[in-house]
Each structure stands twice: as C-alpha cells, then as structure tokens.
Amino acid sequence: MTPTDFATLPLDPALLRNLDSLAYHQMTPVQAQSLPEVLAGRDVIVQARTGSGKTAAFGLGLLHKLQAQRFRIQSLVLCPTRELADQVAEEVRTLARTLTNIKVLTLCGGVPIGPQIGSLEHGAHIVVGTPGRIEDHLRKGTLNLSTVDTLVLDEADRMLDMGFQPVLDRIVEHIPSDRQTLLFSATFPPEIESIAQRIMNQPVRITVEERHDERSIEELFSPIDGLSRPEAVRLLLLAERPNAALVFCNTKQGVKALTQHLNQNGLNTQALHGDLDQRERDQTMVLFDNNSCSILVATDVAARGLDIDAVDLVINHEIARDSAVHTHRVGRTGRAGRQGKAITLFDEKERFKLARLGDSLTIEPLPDKGILTQPPYRAPMATLQIDGGKKQKVRRGDILGALTAPGGLDGQQVGKIHLQDLRAYVAVKRSEATLALEMINKGKLKGRQFRARLVR
Questions:
Q1: What is the pLDDT of residues 197-208, one digit of tens each?
Q2: Which of 151, 234, 211, 158 is closest to 189 using CA atoms?
Q3: What is the pTM of this model?
Q4: Is it the case that residue 79 has pLDDT exceeding 90?
Q5: Alpha-carbon gap, residue 228 to 17, rounded angstroms
Q6: What does the pLDDT read at residue 22?
Q7: Between 434 and 327, residue with greater pLDDT
Q8: Residue 1 included in any domain
Q9: In 10 A of CB 339, how many CB atoms?
Q10: Which residue in 279, 278, 286 sits closest to 270, CA to CA?
Q11: Tally of domains in the chain
Q12: Do 409 and 432 contact (CB within 8 A), yes or no?
C-alpha cells in the first residue's frame, strides 16, 4: 500500500468501500496533500487547477464528519456558477452512495425559487449553491445556516471576479464562527488573502503545482503570417478537424466576433462569455458535451469552473495576459490519459511576449493557406430538446426506449442524454435526427406525449 492510497486515510469504512467500488484507489496530488489536513479538522486553503480532483478532497472531508441522523444542514458549498454547483452536487452524491439517507440539495439562480423553498422545508444535510441564490433564501428566511459546521468556497477567485465578495461576507455572518472553512482556488490574488484573513482560522496553505504531461500534450506556437486571427483559427480547425476544440479569447468582443466568423463559414461553433444568461449557458455546454457542437469559443472567466475532459485541441486566439492563465488554458486538453494539442497564435509584434511562457518553445508555421478553400466539417451528433424533464419523472431509459422502439434508431446511434428539471436533451447521430424527432413527437414517454425540436 502506497502513501497515496485512499485506504491509508482514517476515513469512514463505508466511504472507503464506495471509493473501492468506484475504482478510486490512488489519490491525486491535491487529495494527497489536502485530505489529511481536512480530516484533521483544520481550515485549509488549496491552490490547484480545475480538474485536479479537489471536489473529492473536500467532499470526502465533509461526508466523513457528517452525522446522518442529524437531519439539519451541516455543510455549505459555495460555487461561482450553476454548472459547477451541479457538478459538485452530483459528485458528492456519488461519493455518498454507501452512506445512509444523505440528502444533497442544490440551490442556484436561473430557476424558480418556489420549488427550492419546498425542498428546504423537507430538510437537507448538504447544500451546494451559488452565492446570489443562497443570499436570496437567507433574506426570505427560508434557509437556516446556524447548524453548518463546514463551509467550502470552491473556485473562490472566480467568485471574487464576479463581484460576489460582499455577498460572501453577508452569507458568512449566518454561519457559526467555530466552523471548518475550506477554500479552493486556481489562482491566489490579493483578494483571496483578504477574505481568508476575515473568515478563516489559522488556515493551512497548500499549493499544488501540476505540470502538464509533455507526452500527452503537444504545444505549438504559430505566427499568423498575414492572416487575420479568425482566418488563422479557421485554418487550424480545418487542418486538424477536431471532435472537440476549445478556443480562448481575451475579451467578450473577441469571442463574439470569432464565433460569428466560424459559423458564417459553416463550422458548428458556440460562444461562452459573461453576457449569456443561465439557460443559454446550460444549453451551450450541453451542445458541446453532446458533440453536436465541435467548437467552443470562450473567455477565461466564462470557462472557469467547467470540468471538460474530452478536448482534442486548444487554440489561443491571442496570447494570455499572464503565464498562469496560459498554463490553465493548455491544461484543458490531454486529460484523463488522452492525447491533446495546444496552439497559440501570435503576430511578429508580440514575439517578445513569448519569453514569459518558457525558454524552449516550439514555433511552427500555420498549415497551407489553401486549406481555407476546403468545405467545412460538421459535428457528428445532433441534439434534440424534449419539453419534459425530472419534474415530469422522465428518465434516461424512457428517452432511450422511445428512440429505439420498433422502426426507430439503433441504440448505438443515441449519444448522451442530459436531464434537467423541465427539459431533456439527447444527442443522436446527425444522419438520424429527422427519424429521432419523429420517434419522440409521435411516441410516448411515461405514457404521455412530449414535444421535441432540433436544437443543433
């Protein structure tokens, strides 16, 4: 048994059994360094990138100390976005599978508050939410945090970027001062130090420097050589033809202009930036995850908190403003044992900026410009939106059954299914989209008819 085995930790045996069943045997660096301190009850500040395994680090800590027979809110996890809150809540539920009757409740904006009030009346052990919606419930008197003994701030720097510092301070006033506080952040700006001094008690500081595996990521730097940046991006996409590409721009305006250029030239592209409302954000991420949109163009702030594994190609539309952001961008590809490529565009006037990114960079010219005349490629999947979800008791099996009924699709032609409260999204092979629509619109789910439409 190695020092990084989960079995070396003084965890609840039920949690260890579940970790074994999930094939979670070896801790990631962030887990190995932080979990002993978390289990010891200390306040902890962890600086680590997205995708480092931090959710399990704090999730196991709060589940280990949780008293299931005490049906009160014992842990509060604050996240900057609804997507991250949903991801965290789902992972905590998975980690808690072998514990008895643990209730995890998600409280986020972008959805009606009434059903959340009803859920709170039935109680919960763990609440995962966004600061704005948590404050809404506190103001209405529908949320009581007086029994919380663990507070987690996940992606704390992102919450501060979004202007949540005053809201965080007001929320903390409702939580007992003798709690344990865990703060996770990809970067450590002065604002993080300030909030840590106000709300934490002698925190242990842990910094996890995880270098990219050079064997899994090929990193290149390419001069745009007389092309506009949008043309250079399109050239790379046509040459590489990735299933999933993430393109980073430094500004919202850059995201919008590049997305428009790529779509006008026939490439399935979605934008992710701060001007999108929650419904638009949710749908964008579903389309990208479903592989019915091959290209996601995003700002760094909008992409923070998203756990996206299967990215083949990262393109930096322009050089990031600092080396830490560049490293974070490149680390979006080559994950989970996959191979990946990252290409950064620059013009000759910017060559001096490359020095801050390393000494031995691989400079490679762009592919032949004649590739720009090639026809665009299309994403392999199409996504259908069904006007029924969890609230209507629709399950993934119901959707799969309706699509694969006699005369319908083969099961291999159906991709990912995302269930939300009032709607569902299902990916199907693009060539079968018309048949899939017919199977849903003319068939039945749960004995009822639901309307479906093609989203992309």
A1: 999 999 999 988
A2: 158
A3: 0.69
A4: yes
A5: 55
A6: 85
A7: 434
A8: no
A9: 11
A10: 286
A11: 3
A12: yes
Q: Which two tokens stand for residue 161?
A: 């970027």
Residues 186 and 225 in one domain: no
* Rounded-to-integer distance, Cα 269 and Cα 408, Å: 29
Which structural domain range is residue 310 located in?
A: 217-373
pLDDT digit string, tens, across residues 252-296 = 999 999 999 999 999 999 999 888 887 888 889 889 988 999 999
Q: Rounded to whole angstroms, how far apart are CA atoms 231 and 236? A: 9
CA angle 118, 149, 177 (to 5 degrees): 115
Backbone φ, ψ for residue 217 (5° rounding): -125, 120
Rounded Cα distance between 126 and 61, Å, is: 12
How far is the C-alpha of 75 from the C-alpha of 58, rounded, in Å? 11
Residue pair 95/321 in contact by the 8 Å Cβ criterion: no
Last residue of a domain, one of 373, 402, 434: 373
Phi-psi region of 393 (alpha: psi -120 to 50; beta: other; left: phi over 0): left
Tokens of 236: 């790379």
Which position has the token pair 């721009």? Answer: 249
Query: Is the confidence at residue 360, as pLDDT, over 60?
Result: yes
CA distances from 135 to 60, 83, 155, 235 (A): 26, 18, 18, 47
List the one residue out of 370, 375, 386, 396 whose CA is nearest residue 424: 386
Give me the count of residues in the chain: 456
Question: Please, what is the average pLDDT of the chain?
Answer: 90
Condensed to tens digits (0 to 9), the pLDDT of residues 10-41 reads 998 999 999 988 888 889 889 999 999 999 99
Among 155, 178, 207, residue at a domain's last position: 207
Note the pLDDT of residue 287.
92
